[in-house]
Amino acid sequence: MQSTAPIEQKKIQRFLKIPTEKYQYTLDLSFSKKTLTQAHNSLLQDDHARAKDCLSLIPDPLWRDVCGDLIIMMGPASVLKIWKSTLGEFCPQDKALDFTCETEEAAAFAQQYDFVILGSLKRYFPALKQLRVHFQ
Predict the structure, then answer these.
(1) Residue 100 three-state SS
(2) What tens digit of pLDDT does each residue of 11-66 get?
(3) Is 130 in contact with 98 (CB distance < 8 Å)?
C-alpha cells in the first residue's frame, strides 16, 4: 500500500513554486471601532440632511408632518423611500385613506409599515383603520 504523503508534498510544492517576485502587493487594512463609527455617523448625518431637504419639498402639509414623524420613529432612510408619495382622500364609509406611491418599492415599503403611517395619521383621522396603497 502506498502512502499519500508524497502526493500531498508534490501538490504543495507546485503551489509554492508560483513566481511571486513579479507581483508586489501592498495591503493596508486598518480598522478600528472609532473609524467605522465615524464613517457610519457621517452616513447617518448625510441621510438625515437629505431627508430634511426632501421634507421641505413636500407641498402637502399633512404628508410633510407625517414624514416628520417617520424620521423620528423609523429614521431618515424610511422617509427617503416614500417622501414622493401622496395622500389621497379619506373615505369615512370604509375608514380608509388612499396612498399613492411613485414606485413599486415605495408601495411595498408603505404596505409593510402601514401601521406606522396609520399611527401618525390617526391624530387627524381618529376613525382611520386602513391605508390603501397604490403605485403609479
Answers:
(1) strand
(2) 545 555 555 556 566 666 665 666 555 555 555 568 888 999 999 999 999 999 99
(3) no
C-alpha cell at 116: 406606522
Tell me how long the chain is.
Answer: 136
Tell me the backbone φ, ψ of residue 20, rounded to 5 degrees.
Answer: -105, -10
Question: Any idea which residue has 396603497 for its cell?
Answer: 133
Residue 7 CB coordination number (10 Å): 10
In this structure, the number of other CB atoms found within 10 A of the CB of residue 120 comes to 17
Q: What's the N-to-C CA distance of the chain in angstroms?
A: 74
Q: Measured at the alpha carbon of residue 70, what is the angle toward residues 102 and 74, in degrees to the nearest 5? A: 105
Beta carbons within 10 angstroms of residue 96's beta carbon: 18
User: What is the value of pTM for the model shown?
Assistant: 0.65
Distance CA 123, CA 131 (A): 15
Query: CA 125, CA 120: separation in Å to the nearest integer?
Result: 9
